[in-house]
Amino acid sequence: MIKGKDTDENYARAKATLTDSKGNPTPKYSAYMRYESEWNEKRQAHQSAYSEAMGDPLKMSRWGVEGKIFIDAINSAMNKWLALGYKNEIDQALKTLSANQKKE
Question: Which of 16, 39, 75, 103 is most buried, taking the most CB atoms under 10 A from its CB?
Answer without folding.
Answer: 39
